Amino acid sequence: MRAIISNEWIKLKGHPVYPILILVVMGLFILVVSQLKNAPFMGSSQDVEGQTFASLGLFDKGTILQTISYMAGFFKYIMVILFMHYVSLDYRYKMHRKQVMEGWSRPTTFFSKYLWIIAFVIIQTIILYIMGFLLSGAGDKSWSDYLSNPIFWALEFLALMTVGLFFLHLTKKSGLSMIILLIYAVIAEPIVAFRIPEIKAILPLAQSRLLIEAPFQKYVGFFTGEAYVPPGFPMQATITTLLFIVAFTAFSWWRFSKTDL
Amino acid sequence: MKIQNALSTQGLTKKYGQFIAVNDMTLSIPQGSVFGILGPNGSGKTTFLGMILGIIKSSSGSYAWFENGEKYPPGSIGGILEEPNLMPQLSAIDHLKMTANIKGVDFKTCEHILKRVGLDHVAKKKSGAFSLGMKQRLAIGSALIGDPRVLVLDEPLNGLDPSGIREVRELILQLAAEGVTVIISSHLLDEIEKVCTHLAIFKQGNLIDTQVLNQVTETDTVRLQIKAEAEHLLETVKQWAMTKSAELVEDFIHVEVMKPGNAASLNAYLFSNNIQLNHLVPLKEGVEKLFIEKTK
Q1: Is the ipTM reported for this complex over the cut 0.90?
Q2: pLDDT digits over A125-138, tens only?
Q3: Which residues of A touch B (CB under 8 A)?
Q4: What 3 state SS string does chain B have?
Q5: B221-292 has which CATH code?
């Protein structure tokens, strides 16, 4: 494990643009969320006129974890694309080949790429908790009802990441895999989920989107929810998303293990 | 005494669809040898080396390293396949440190290796700014980390200038003297002849021939071409104790003389039998001739 961390650190040091961009996006997210608290809420519903995010209760104790976890989801595509591009460097410069020739097993080479992804997910999840506690307003909700939301963000991110990495291992080309991912995630899967709702359960990203309920949906005007209800634990979506993460990692490994490096 | 093999392959085959890149390759590479692989472009050299290095999946057949038949003993093998695999943003020392990490070797070794491959003055320079020759030397340096028992070098002389070629040649000979098995593919027949003890010739994915190179390059015997206006010349030559073989080739007699016999001692022997040669030329039948014959 020491060798993996040390090698990945050497590679990361040599490509500072990736951690810098990731930190910039994380910083941007923190800035946006912290500024949003007292920003006017823009929705089409009449009862939100003149209201801020905080006055609508979206930054209340507990609820804030749902709000910021949901909003962190807006940044996930940028993060996933940055990670995909970074991981693709190993294909471009044939680092997998070099590492296997030098004595690492294929599983070690394959899973070494998950080091920074896991590290990022852990750090971002912790940031969500810290921001939640720091920016929280008052309110009668319970923290315990919302504690799972940052973890749901992590699962949602990992679902998109593993699908993206699968496309990358399939094509071995960063640009092509990113295009395929965006077409799949933004166009193909949502259309299929909308047209054939019966098969939503087998669509990985559709399932992951069910993890965190949109916290301000009733204020946006598109929805007709009678009252804001804290979400229950989305058991089915959690299990399905976890299964998809494992499945797509397994598909990627299968592809990597069978291919010539 | 039984010769220990560094590598044995059995029916190793690689197919890409209908195309057979390497076909039923069975060979043994003795430990401590410098084993040259020759073949025209597309003969399967790189695919073969890729399979034994574990980075190209074989379609069938098997290979085993060393006497205990390991599939791929970590750290025991250093290799270069095709072009050097380097990240242009990383420095020379960074690349060696990564290899040292993988092989569990102290970082101090990296500086020593950089000196050995003549890159110590550019240790912190990004490899993207290196010439092809410098990249090649850095890749060889990476392969040398951890004192491998076997070094697999695919076209290691590509991009090297004459002094670079000489340095790599000397390095290979030095490693061989230390007991390292070196497997090397190259287009440079002359270089193969200079460093290799064994030779395999590939053509269209098939193993055409294997040779112990000193039998090809006349180190056990001396081949001579002689001519004389004398009767019974062939019989007289055959009767000499140092003659291994003699045959008539057109107007000349080709004699294979066992060492320490040589041209002078053959001449002296024939002179003592009242035969005066009017033509005595040493024959050099090296790798090039063998290669051309076998790959026709």
Answers
A1: no
A2: 999 999 998 988 78
A3: 2-3, 6-7, 10-11, 13-15, 89, 93-95, 97-105, 258-261
A4: CCCCEEEEEEEEEEEECCEEEEEEEEEEEECCCEEEEECCCCCCHHHHHHHHCCCCCCCEEEEEECCCCECCCCCCEEEECCCCCCCCCCEHHHHHHHHHHHHCCCCHHHHHHHHHCCCHHHCCCEHHHCCHHHHHHHHHHHHHCCCCCEEEEECCCCCCCHHHHHHHHHHHHHHHHCCCEEEEECCCHHHHHHHCCEEEEEECCEEEEEEEHHHHCCCCEEEEEEECCCCCHHHHHHHCCCEEEEEEECCEEEEEEECCCCHHHHHHHHHHCCCCCCEEEECCCCHHHHHHHHCC
A5: 3.30.70.100
